[in-house]
Design goal:
The complex is a heterotrimer. By secondary structure, chain A is mainly α. Chain A contains 14 helices and no strands. Chain A is elongated, with a radius of gyration of 22 Å. Chain C starts with a strand and ends in a 16-residue tail after the last strand. Classes of the chains: A mainly alpha, B alpha/beta, C alpha/beta. Chains B and C meet through helix 5, helix 6, helix 7 and helix 9 of B and helix 5, helix 6, helix 7, helix 8 and helix 9 of C.
């Protein structure tokens, strides 16, 4: 028997195109390292024993053998705090974007598929949200709900709902007029099947790109909120809060500010590199 | 006793547009005999694709009647609608956009079987898919391929297999070969003829290509701006076109031959869109024979010889009948 | 001195991609005299458009690359000119009409401005004169000069293609390359546009390369025909001898694939199989896997172009006597 053509899914194909993009692979590489650090944070440095353990006798020390990134103003190990901070930042970033995608995506898909009045109501509401700067919106949400990790995620997530609603709506509208949707109708498919089987798989590409870039944005927002004291409470390490805490010692111990700053920068950069790479890999114009 | 599978009476489909009501299909009547092919020809904007979609209930009709197999299906409930899907199918023009790029060949062909719950058994489904693939001449090897990995001809075969999956009796083929190269076009036309014989299918074959329509049709309906202008058996229409539009249309086809040159009738003007059409004959603004009557009064259908119907005030004068 | 105007010799154009090298054009030879129309006929992916873009040196690079060959226009090899010299040729000496009139006009410029633009670039005129000339060009293609201030979306498809033709002819080019100029149009409109092009060509004595897949259009409009398959010209002839007796099995197959309007054929007789992948062309004669007369030799030997009549060349081993070609129809 002749060998059948192997099923080569869209993911596989996207990967084939992504892996030749050096910058995207660099971004992905850094991201994988960050995720590994976050996952094994406890194994790398114990939270109880190292990350939040204060020892004022060694405060504000520069990098050394025992503390490779030095210590902060309470003598805590910076490296352990950054590693544990990665855990918080990535978790908040990913979950916040998850919330935004689920709510925004559903609203956008409904608006795009059904159109008419429903579309108008949903999208005008989104426009109202978009008119408020997202950081202000997040500040408002956190200050009314109180600052906790969950509220932080909600705040950052909710403030980016309109973005996803718009992207998904635009994508659904362009897909729903495709002939294959009409073809599905012609063989008797119902609306829910058409949305789930045909429209969503075909409109997911721009959402993936936006989500990657969105995680970067969410991490930045979280850091910003923490910086102004609305984020994660002490002593839990969070990059934005670390920046904020260290700014008083900027002159005498610049590393206290520099390392969390670099951590944020590297994370954002890697996500953006990957996001750009994904955008290219998923670009239909390059397909063929 | 007639053997008509489909009868369409005064069918209309109007769309509301910002510029006014678009009379896409504006009172079309015809019948198709079971096992035969009706060719519907016309240029862009003549309403031929809309007509096909209205008959299949992919679009709702504005008024008129559609009678399928003796049953009035103009208005159907959900249950009848699902049943109709098994009887009537469509083959689309564009083999690129009419197949979901995220689904494999087998998933595409399987979908109608799954939707209609023909069988739940996975082996049975796979068997049916491979039967259908061999029916339309697709090798088994391609079962897990994605449409974009295949050329236009093969993609169109997938579309045909999907249409055949539920054993329909009536198929609307909307420009099924226009997007294909000539050599592939011929392969697909042959396939469609074979399938018609094998399964006793009835086709409504929509196209702008007159040589294709002549080849495949038993009867041809010529449309212009939502209206029928002429209908005749295929041979008769080409041998003896009577409507001035049909004549111009036939004369405009470039023939791949130097010896059989046609006398070219160049029409003046462009095709306009049928938004808020003026009274009278739709073709009057471009017709070389148009007179005052044509601009004010709509012509009626006239049967000039057996099965040859024409809609023109001056058919007798123009053709010296 | 012959009146040979354009000659293409052994042109090779490849697209180098990650998936492999696409050999789009593989050794094309063509000649064109002043005022003549050459039809370039072939199916999707045969290399028609690549050849045309190659003449204008507009192959997107990367991935495209002209590997080898000469394109000689009035004694000058275009492939050796600088980009600046080439720019002066485009639109002035050689201009091109693209297939889709919907996308080849800029939607935010009036048609008058678009015609005037090409005139301003190539001719020593001021804005006012260019505008006047643009109006004249519109009149020439059968559109009232008063519509020069209209935008493309205010025109129908056929009218837009007339505008495109007006732009192409604005600087009275000596060579016009028309890439499927009527494919997107309805038949009655196609007839009008073909008629217009024929008339203008005569008036300006322009040479033309007409790219098409439609042998009917060729019969209407061309003097010479080149049939192109997998980047090679398999048959080249003047139109009379090609239509009277097509020689190459591929050409014959093309004719047999078209449903005839004059004869009743129960079944068409298509060429079997599919176009070869341009990244993976068959050995020997490119057509042999689909050829009904192919013999073992066809997969081994690369056929040479042989003369079978006055200005009638065929690239097939049957005509160089290497292969019997039993059953092939020839009169």
């Amino acid at each position: 028997m002749v060998e059948k053509i192997k099923k080569k899914s869209q993911w596989r194909e996207m990967w084939d195109r992504l892996k030749v993009n050096k910058m995207a692979m660099l971004g992905l590489g850094i991201l994988v390292i960050l995720i590994l650090l976050a996952v094994f944070a406890e194994q790398i440095a114990s939270y109880e024993d190292v990350a939040i353990k204060m020892d004022t006798s060694i405060r504000l020390q520069g990098p050394s053998k025992e503390h490779i990134l030095g210590t902060d103003e309470f003598g805590r190990d910076m490296f352990a705090r950054i590693v544990h901070g990665a855990r918080v930042s990535l978790k908040v970033g990913i979950i916040a974007v998850g919330i935004a995608i689920i709510i925004g995506g559903t609203l956008g898909a409904v608006a795009g598929f059904y159109g008419g009045t429903l579309d108008n109501v949903i999208m005008r509401t989104m426009d109202v949200f978009l008119a408020i700067p997202s950081i202000l919106l997040a500040i408002a949400i956190v200050s009314s709900l109180g600052s906790s990790m969950l509220n932080l995620m909600l705040a950052v997530g909710i403030s980016s709902i309109p973005n996803y609603a718009r992207i998904v709506r635009a994508s659904v509208i362009s897909v729903k007029d495709e002939e294959f949707v009409e073809a599905a109708r012609a063989i008797g498919a119902r609306d829910n099947r058409i949305i789930l089987k045909h429209i969503i798989p075909n409109s997911i590409a721009p959402v993936i790109v936006q989500a990657t870039l969105g995680v970067a944005g969410a991490i930045l927002s979280t850091a910003g909120l923490s910086f102004i004291g609305l984020g994660i409470a002490q002593p839990q390490p969070e990059w934005g809060a670390m920046l904020s805490g260290g700014r008083a010692f900027l002159v005498q111990a610049p590393h206290v500010v520099a390392f969390p700053g670099i951590a944020i920068m590297i994370t954002i950069l890697s996500l953006n590199l990957l996001g750009d790479g994904l955008r290219d890999a998923l670009d239909p114009r390059l397909r063929q | 006793m007639s053997n008509n599978i489909l009868e369409v009476k005064n069918l209309k489909k109007h769309f509301d547009t910002p510029k006014g009501t678009l009379h896409a299909v504006d009172g079309v009547d015809f019948t198709i005999e079971a096992g035969k092919t009706l060719g519907v020809v016309g240029e862009s904007g003549c309403g031929k694709s809309t007509l096909g979609r209205v008959i299949l209930h992919l679009l709702d009709s504005t008024s008129g009647e559609i009678i399928y197999d003796g049953e009035n299906i103009t208005k159907v409930d959900k249950k009848q609608f699902i049943d109709l899907r098994k009887e009537m199918q469509i083959i689309f023009q564009d083999p690129f956009s009419s197949l979901d790029p995220r689904m494999t060949v087998s998933e595409i062909i399987k979908e109608p079987l799954v939707i209609h719950g023909v069988t739940k058994d996975k082996n049975e489904l796979d068997k049916r898919v491979s039967e259908l693939m061999s029916t339309v001449g697709l090798v088994d090897r391609l079962v897990n391929a994605y449409p974009h990995e295949l050329d236009g001809g093969r993609r169109q075969r997938i579309g045909i297999a999907r249409a055949l999956a539920l054993n329909p009796k009536f198929i609307v083929a909307d420009e099924p070969v226009s997007a294909l190269d000539v050599s592939i076009q011929a392969q697909v036309l042959n396939l469609m003829q074979d399938l018609q014989q094998e399964f006793g299918l009835t086709y409504m074959f929509i196209t702008h290509d007159l040589s294709v329509v002549k080849h495949i049709s038993d009867e041809i309906l010529v449309m212009y701006l939502g209206k029928m202008v002429e209908k005749a058996p295929a041979k008769e229409l080409f041998a003896n076109p009577l409507h001035p539009y049909t004549k111009a249309l036939l004369s405009a086809i470039p023939t791949p031959s130097l010896t059989k040159k046609r006398e070219r009738i160049l029409l003046k003007g462009e095709i306009v869109s049928p938004i808020e059409p003026k009274p009278g004959c739709r073709f009057a603004p471009r017709c070389p024979y148009a007179e005052e009557l044509c601009r004010t009064t709509e012509p009626e259908i006239e049967e000039v010889s057996l099965g040859h119907e024409i809609v023109c005030h001056f058919v007798k004068e123009i053709n010296k009948l | 001195m012959s009146n040979e105007f354009l000659s293409i010799e052994d042109l090779h154009i490849h697209y180098i991609t990650q998936e492999g090298t696409v050999k789009a054009v593989n050794g094309i030879d063509l000649k064109l005299n002043k005022g003549e129309t050459l039809g370039l006929v072939g199916e999707t992916g045969a290399g028609k458009t690549t050849t045309a873009l190659g003449i204008l040196r507009l192959i997107p690079n990367p991935p495209g690359k002209i590997m080898d060959g000469k394109i000689i226009l009035e004694g000058r090899n275009l492939l050796e000119l600088s980009e600046e010299e080439m720019r002066k040729i485009r639109g002035k000496k050689v201009s091109m009409i693209f297939q889709d009139p919907m996308t080849s006009l800029n939607p935010v410029m009036t048609v008058g401005e678009q015609i005037a633009e090409v005139i301003e670039i190539h001719e020593d005129v001021n804005k006012e004169e260019a505008k006047e000339k643009a109006k004249e060009m519109l009149e020439l293609v059968g559109i009232s000069g008063g519509r020069a201030g209209d935008y493309p979306h205010q025109f129908s498809g056929g009218m837009k293609q007339r505008v495109v033709i007006a732009i192409a002819l604005a600087c009275s080019p000596e060579l016009l390359i028309a890439d499927e100029p009527t494919t997107a149009l309805d038949v009655t409109i196609q007839a009008q546009v073909l008629d217009l092009m024929q008339g203008l060509k005569k008036e300006f004595n322009t040479a033309m390369i007409l790219i098409t897949h439609d042998l009917g259009v060729v019969a209407e409009a061309c003097d010479k025909v080149a049939i192109i398959y997998a980047g090679e010209i398999v048959e080249y002839a003047d139109i009379e001898s090609l239509f009277a007796s097509p020689k190459h099995p591929y050409t014959q197959g093309l004719f047999a694939s078209i449903p005839s309007l004059d004869e009743d054929v129960e079944r068409l007789n298509p060429i079997k199989g599919l176009m070869p992948e341009p990244t993976d062309l068959p050995s020997g004669c490119r057509f042999h896997p689909r050829c009904p007369y192919a013999e073992a030799k066809c997969s081994e030997m690369d056929p040479k172009s042989v003369e079978v009549g006055a200005e009638h060349r065929v690239k097939c081993l049957i005509y160089s006597g290497e292969v019997s070609g039993k059953g092939i129809e020839n009169e």
